[in-house]
Amino acid sequence: MWLGSEVMFFAGLFAIYFTLRSTSPELWAARTELLNVPYAFVNTAILVFSSFTCQMGVFAAEDLQPYRIAKGEKNAAGRRRLFGWGMVEWFFLTFALGAIFVSGQVWEYAQLVAEGMPISADSYASAFYLTTGFHALHVTGGLIAFLLVIGRAYAVKNFRHKEATSSIVVSYYWHFVDVVWIVLFVVIYFLK
Q: Which GO BP terms sit in this record (predicted)?
């Protein structure tokens, strides 16, 4: 239900963009020229890669492997994991990649403001900062959720299916945030 409401929230933000594009094509064309597409592409690739690391953490959690196992050992499910990493290590890597993404957004905002596009510049700037800013807030919420799941893994004596389920739920949210960004990235950086 909650992810459904998030879809509706972001649908509204997309509606702002498409309305702006259809009513002010000259403003759209002028402002999109300021965007650094190669930089945004690299930042997007970092976020997309974090979905893969998140899923590796989920696979480890499903095998009830919260932490790294020694080289050559098998986990409780009788499998060997990439690098022997457990959920915690994969989620820490996912957290780091997500934090790099958010930091990249902040750097991009600073560059755009320096180029004369603060949030108050015009309707395009407002729409850009609202959509990408709300997405960055959602990513930050996901980062907090990763820390809570990691903390829970350390707090319990025995990592069980209940803890694994928490990691799966957080991964659903993280994958959702990634998919939303991919669509935002295409709409914002490629529609000219």
A: aerobic electron transport chain
